[in-house]
Amino acid sequence: MKAYQISDLKNFMNKLLLSENFDYFLLEEGTIVTYNTFRIDGHILKDFYTKEEQEDSALCPYDFSLWKNMRPLCLQLIKGKRTPLSFKFVLLLMPEHMKKIMSDGAYEDDGHKLKAFTLTVKYDGSTACLVTGISTNTFVMDKTPEQLWDLAFQKFMDKNQILWEEI
Protein backbone atom coordinates (compact mmCIF):
# COMPACT_ATOMS: atom_id res chain seq x y z
CA MET A 1 0.00 0.00 0.00
CA LYS A 2 1.32 3.38 -0.99
CA ALA A 3 -0.12 6.87 -0.74
CA TYR A 4 0.39 9.60 -3.31
CA GLN A 5 -0.40 13.28 -3.16
CA ILE A 6 -1.36 14.84 -6.47
CA SER A 7 0.80 17.83 -7.42
CA ASP A 8 -1.36 19.25 -10.24
CA LEU A 9 -4.96 19.02 -9.07
CA LYS A 10 -6.62 20.50 -12.17
CA ASN A 11 -4.78 18.11 -14.49
CA PHE A 12 -5.65 15.14 -12.28
CA MET A 13 -9.35 16.06 -12.08
CA ASN A 14 -9.46 16.33 -15.87
CA LYS A 15 -7.86 12.89 -16.21
CA LEU A 16 -10.18 11.33 -13.61
CA LEU A 17 -13.48 12.91 -14.65
CA LEU A 18 -13.17 14.04 -18.26
CA SER A 19 -10.93 11.46 -19.95
CA GLU A 20 -10.78 7.72 -20.46
CA ASN A 21 -7.56 7.36 -18.42
CA PHE A 22 -9.25 5.65 -15.47
CA ASP A 23 -11.69 3.56 -17.52
CA TYR A 24 -9.77 0.36 -16.58
CA PHE A 25 -11.41 0.59 -13.17
CA LEU A 26 -14.69 -0.42 -11.58
CA LEU A 27 -16.44 1.74 -8.99
CA GLU A 28 -16.96 -0.11 -5.72
CA GLU A 29 -18.23 2.92 -3.84
CA GLY A 30 -18.25 6.68 -3.95
CA THR A 31 -19.16 9.60 -1.75
CA ILE A 32 -19.48 13.14 -3.07
CA VAL A 33 -20.12 16.00 -0.64
CA THR A 34 -21.51 19.21 -2.15
CA TYR A 35 -24.82 20.77 -1.06
CA ASN A 36 -25.84 17.20 -0.13
CA THR A 37 -23.91 14.03 0.51
CA PHE A 38 -24.30 11.63 -2.39
CA ARG A 39 -23.38 8.00 -1.74
CA ILE A 40 -22.96 5.52 -4.57
CA ASP A 41 -22.89 1.78 -4.03
CA GLY A 42 -21.22 0.42 -7.14
CA HIS A 43 -22.50 -3.14 -6.72
CA ILE A 44 -24.46 -4.24 -9.78
CA LEU A 45 -27.99 -5.29 -8.80
CA LYS A 46 -28.55 -8.10 -11.27
CA ASP A 47 -32.22 -8.43 -10.26
CA PHE A 48 -32.81 -5.10 -12.01
CA TYR A 49 -32.15 -6.80 -15.34
CA THR A 50 -34.30 -9.33 -17.18
CA LYS A 51 -33.22 -12.96 -17.09
CA GLU A 52 -31.95 -12.66 -20.67
CA GLU A 53 -29.95 -9.54 -19.80
CA GLN A 54 -28.46 -11.27 -16.74
CA GLU A 55 -27.23 -14.12 -18.93
CA ASP A 56 -25.60 -11.70 -21.38
CA SER A 57 -22.02 -11.53 -20.10
CA ALA A 58 -21.39 -8.39 -22.17
CA LEU A 59 -24.09 -6.49 -20.25
CA CYS A 60 -23.12 -7.54 -16.70
CA PRO A 61 -19.54 -8.79 -16.88
CA TYR A 62 -18.55 -7.56 -13.40
CA ASP A 63 -19.99 -7.34 -9.92
CA PHE A 64 -19.32 -3.58 -9.85
CA SER A 65 -20.17 -0.69 -12.18
CA LEU A 66 -17.68 0.38 -14.80
CA TRP A 67 -16.04 3.69 -13.89
CA LYS A 68 -16.55 4.83 -17.50
CA ASN A 69 -20.32 4.46 -17.00
CA MET A 70 -20.36 6.15 -13.59
CA ARG A 71 -17.93 8.94 -14.48
CA PRO A 72 -20.57 11.19 -16.17
CA LEU A 73 -22.85 10.90 -13.14
CA CYS A 74 -19.99 11.74 -10.76
CA LEU A 75 -18.92 14.63 -12.98
CA GLN A 76 -22.47 15.98 -12.96
CA LEU A 77 -22.50 15.94 -9.15
CA ILE A 78 -19.06 17.54 -8.86
CA LYS A 79 -19.02 20.22 -11.56
CA GLY A 80 -20.30 23.68 -10.91
CA LYS A 81 -19.19 27.10 -9.76
CA ARG A 82 -18.14 25.75 -6.37
CA THR A 83 -15.73 22.95 -5.72
CA PRO A 84 -17.06 20.01 -3.73
CA LEU A 85 -16.37 19.95 -0.02
CA SER A 86 -14.92 16.46 -0.51
CA PHE A 87 -15.24 13.23 -2.37
CA LYS A 88 -13.96 9.70 -2.11
CA PHE A 89 -14.00 6.93 -4.71
CA VAL A 90 -12.97 3.35 -4.12
CA LEU A 91 -11.96 1.91 -7.48
CA LEU A 92 -11.00 -1.65 -8.39
CA LEU A 93 -8.77 -2.48 -11.30
CA MET A 94 -10.62 -4.69 -13.78
CA PRO A 95 -9.74 -8.36 -13.14
CA GLU A 96 -8.18 -8.91 -16.57
CA HIS A 97 -5.74 -6.02 -15.99
CA MET A 98 -4.95 -7.29 -12.50
CA LYS A 99 -4.13 -10.73 -13.94
CA LYS A 100 -1.87 -9.16 -16.56
CA ILE A 101 0.10 -7.23 -13.92
CA MET A 102 0.55 -10.42 -11.88
CA SER A 103 1.45 -12.45 -14.95
CA ASP A 104 4.00 -9.84 -16.10
CA GLY A 105 5.50 -9.98 -12.59
CA ALA A 106 5.62 -13.80 -12.71
CA TYR A 107 3.24 -14.06 -9.74
CA GLU A 108 0.88 -17.02 -9.74
CA ASP A 109 -2.54 -16.87 -8.10
CA ASP A 110 -5.28 -19.40 -8.68
CA GLY A 111 -7.92 -16.80 -7.82
CA HIS A 112 -8.32 -17.94 -4.23
CA LYS A 113 -5.97 -15.46 -2.56
CA LEU A 114 -6.41 -12.09 -4.28
CA LYS A 115 -9.72 -10.35 -4.94
CA ALA A 116 -8.70 -6.98 -6.34
CA PHE A 117 -6.14 -4.24 -6.76
CA THR A 118 -7.72 -1.18 -5.17
CA LEU A 119 -7.30 2.54 -5.63
CA THR A 120 -8.87 4.98 -3.18
CA VAL A 121 -9.16 8.55 -4.44
CA LYS A 122 -9.73 11.14 -1.70
CA TYR A 123 -10.28 14.85 -2.19
CA ASP A 124 -10.64 17.04 0.90
CA GLY A 125 -11.60 20.34 -0.73
CA SER A 126 -8.04 21.40 -1.54
CA THR A 127 -5.81 18.34 -2.09
CA ALA A 128 -6.16 14.91 -3.65
CA CYS A 129 -4.58 11.79 -2.26
CA LEU A 130 -4.50 8.37 -3.92
CA VAL A 131 -3.95 5.17 -1.95
CA THR A 132 -3.24 1.82 -3.57
CA GLY A 133 -3.97 -1.48 -1.89
CA ILE A 134 -5.02 -5.04 -2.41
CA SER A 135 -8.14 -6.89 -1.37
CA THR A 136 -7.66 -10.53 -0.46
CA ASN A 137 -9.80 -13.55 0.28
CA THR A 138 -7.36 -14.77 2.90
CA PHE A 139 -4.29 -13.55 4.76
CA VAL A 140 -1.35 -13.25 2.37
CA MET A 141 2.16 -12.86 3.78
CA ASP A 142 3.77 -12.41 0.36
CA LYS A 143 3.96 -8.68 -0.47
CA THR A 144 4.73 -9.33 -4.15
CA PRO A 145 1.20 -8.57 -5.44
CA GLU A 146 1.15 -5.29 -3.54
CA GLN A 147 4.58 -4.34 -4.87
CA LEU A 148 3.58 -5.25 -8.44
CA TRP A 149 0.43 -3.11 -8.15
CA ASP A 150 2.31 -0.14 -6.68
CA LEU A 151 4.90 -0.26 -9.46
CA ALA A 152 2.25 -0.65 -12.18
CA PHE A 153 0.24 2.25 -10.76
CA GLN A 154 3.27 4.54 -10.64
CA LYS A 155 3.93 3.69 -14.31
CA PHE A 156 0.26 4.39 -15.06
CA MET A 157 0.48 7.85 -13.47
CA ASP A 158 3.73 8.68 -15.24
CA LYS A 159 2.42 7.47 -18.61
CA ASN A 160 -0.72 9.61 -18.17
CA GLN A 161 1.31 12.64 -17.02
CA ILE A 162 -0.25 12.75 -13.57
CA LEU A 163 2.18 14.59 -11.29
CA TRP A 164 2.50 12.96 -7.87
CA GLU A 165 4.59 12.73 -4.74
CA GLU A 166 4.71 9.68 -2.51
CA ILE A 167 3.60 10.48 1.04
What does this structure look like?
Helices cover 32% and strands 30% of the residues. With 167 residues, it is of the alpha+beta class. It has one domain (3-161). Strands 1, 2, 3, 4, 5, 6, 7 and 8 form an eight-stranded antiparallel β-sheet that branches. A hairpin with a 3-residue loop joins strand 2 (25-33) and strand 3 (37-41). The N and C termini lie close together (11 Å).
Radius of gyration: 17 Å
Biggest sheet features: 8 strands, antiparallel
Which segments are poorly predicted (pLDDT under 50) over 5 or more consecutive residues? none
Strand percentage: 25-35%
Q: Termini distance?
A: 11 Å
Overall average pLDDT? 93
How many separate helices?
5
Query: How many domains comprise the coordinates?
Result: 1
The share of residues in helices is 25-40%
The H/E string reads EHEEHEHEHEEHE
Q: Briefly note the structural class of the backbone.
A: alpha+beta
Shape, per Cα inertia axes: globular
Number of strands: 8
